[in-house]
Amino acid sequence: MSPSPYKPITIPKMVPTSICGAASTCRSLKQCPSPATPSFQISHQPKQKPNFIATPRHKSEFNPTLVSTPKWSPLQRVAASALNTIEDRIIKDLLEKPHPLPKTADPSVQISGNYAPVGETAPHHDLPVSGSIPSSINGVYVRNGANPYFDPVGGHHLFDGDGMVHAVHIKNGQASYACRFTETERLVQERSIGRPVFPKAIGELHGHSGVARLVLFIARAALGIIDATRGIGVANAGLVYFNRRLLAMSEDDLPYQVRLTDNGDLQTVGRHDFSGQLRSAMIAHPKVDPVTKEMFALSYDVIHKPYLKYFYFSPDGKKSPDVEIPIDGPTMMHDFAITENFVIIPDQQVVFKMHELLRGGSPVVYDQNKTARFGILPKYAKNASGIKWVEVDNCFCFHLWNAWEDAATGEIVVIGSCMTPPDSIFNESDEHLKSVLSEIRLNSTTGKSTRKPILASSDQVNLEAGMVNKNFLGRKTQFSYLAVAEPWPKVSGFAKVDLLTGKMEKFLYGDNRYGGEPYFLPKDASQMGGEDEGYVLCFVHDEAACQSELLIVNASDLRLEASIKLPSRVPYGFHGTFIRSEELNGQA
């Protein structure tokens, strides 16, 4: 076997001054789409108008048998045609074309290079393996991501794409791979109609054209051209295996159940409402307590009160009553944390102000007059009367990695990556993004808080996307495994961080190799083993060779155990999970 390019090393801090669109030279569009897009700087450059992006609708594996013709009346057909003309000639040509797109909504930036979408891949078995897959790994690693089915007709943000799940089945040292769209109600309807008709929450809903697209959406729904009551979400962000079901989630809808088949394929079962118990959207980062096996979740609403609700599920899927959390206005709640006895709810400065659309802006706003705070609520509270809020200055954590109760001080310890500027993912900024791994301490008795970086200033690097050992979620942990998000937004490796000492070790992927979220898989499914006894799984793409693979790295010493070569390109994506073979045997 040839020497591995992957080594656990420490390198000087990388300065994220540029981000390359990395258009591939791969000859096969099916394997490696190569939109002609320029490199771009974080600082301002002339803004680009959207270029053609080869979406899965154009690919040879597109299956027309999946598409059904909409059952419209003659009047609805006339209305649909008229509304399409209004969209094409007024909204697109008159309202959107004259205005250059910001990079945060420009398709030539947001889905260029290995962010570009791919078509579905049927199961491929007996994949080439370098090294040896550890014998304790038997099951399936699944990862979610955004993969737009249709060409963007206007603005497009990476988060707007249709959900696609990539799955690597591992059994007795052998591996297979498949990827499929999650068949959301939104995707099914758009594919039937033959064009995108649901508004994109981030890429399109800004300014006066955003208002026009909302009106167009309401008109299509009112005329029965689309049915918004069946769901509008994309299910592209999170994955959780709970109550014998794999659930794909985004915070704009109910979760979708995806079934893993015996031959290594994926099939969408449909929207999952927990037997009629869940009637609102659920965020993409629910937390499963490793001891009680209960699942805790939040739901937020950007239009109507209550703006935020908390609830949980018993191990067999029975939902608790909603607890309405008092907040002043609709706030982005992408993530939260649990401890052994409490749920930790962030109320931060990225908020939704829909009236900004009328002023020509984005409804996703960084409210600089708001002070971030964290709510501490008993897990089994029947209402929010016992919640205690603690303010934390200059803090916005898109993700929280863990939290626990410090018995010695009586404080709640929260581990998260504090991001500045807080809205940099959604709105264009001249300021370089920083994501600082931080320890936040909340004292519910005094109402005071402290926040400090875990890494020394000389070691500071952007750390985003990752996890702790889930067997210790909600309890004190020593290690976290986080993506090295440099050069932003690409991921050049992952870091193992000692949360108690600040020591950091890096596993870097090598030149022109980038990945995504590192997933920590405990060697033992129970809590019997040591905290760092296990493996880190991560998809990595070689942009020069146009080759994707799944790496399996020993979490204790950051030694590469195995590399599984994949049959098709895996775009950079979001979050994943691992389902052990014994869990799959009881799949619903």
From TrEMBL:
<keyword id="KW-0223">Dioxygenase</keyword>
<keyword id="KW-0150">Chloroplast</keyword>
<feature type="binding site">
    <location>
        <position position="399"/>
    </location>
    <ligand>
        <name>Fe cation</name>
    </ligand>
</feature>
<feature type="binding site">
    <location>
        <position position="575"/>
    </location>
    <ligand>
        <name>Fe cation</name>
    </ligand>
</feature>
<protein>
    <recommendedName>
        <fullName>9-cis-epoxycarotenoid dioxygenase</fullName>
        <ecNumber>1.13.11.51</ecNumber>
    </recommendedName>
</protein>
<feature type="binding site">
    <location>
        <position position="334"/>
    </location>
    <ligand>
        <name>Fe cation</name>
    </ligand>
</feature>
<keyword id="KW-0479">Metal-binding</keyword>
<keyword id="KW-0934">Plastid</keyword>
<dbReference type="GO" id="GO:0009570">
    <property type="term" value="C:chloroplast stroma"/>
</dbReference>
<dbReference type="Pfam" id="PF03055">
    <property type="entry name" value="RPE65"/>
</dbReference>
<feature type="binding site">
    <location>
        <position position="285"/>
    </location>
    <ligand>
        <name>Fe cation</name>
    </ligand>
</feature>
<dbReference type="GO" id="GO:0046872">
    <property type="term" value="F:metal ion binding"/>
</dbReference>
<keyword id="KW-0937">Abscisic acid biosynthesis</keyword>
<dbReference type="GO" id="GO:0009688">
    <property type="term" value="P:abscisic acid biosynthetic process"/>
</dbReference>
<dbReference type="GO" id="GO:0045549">
    <property type="term" value="F:9-cis-epoxycarotenoid dioxygenase activity"/>
</dbReference>
<keyword id="KW-0408">Iron</keyword>
<keyword id="KW-0809">Transit peptide</keyword>
<comment type="similarity">
    <text>Belongs to the carotenoid oxygenase family.</text>
</comment>
<dbReference type="GO" id="GO:0016121">
    <property type="term" value="P:carotene catabolic process"/>
</dbReference>
<keyword id="KW-0560">Oxidoreductase</keyword>
<dbReference type="InterPro" id="IPR004294">
    <property type="entry name" value="Carotenoid_Oase"/>
</dbReference>
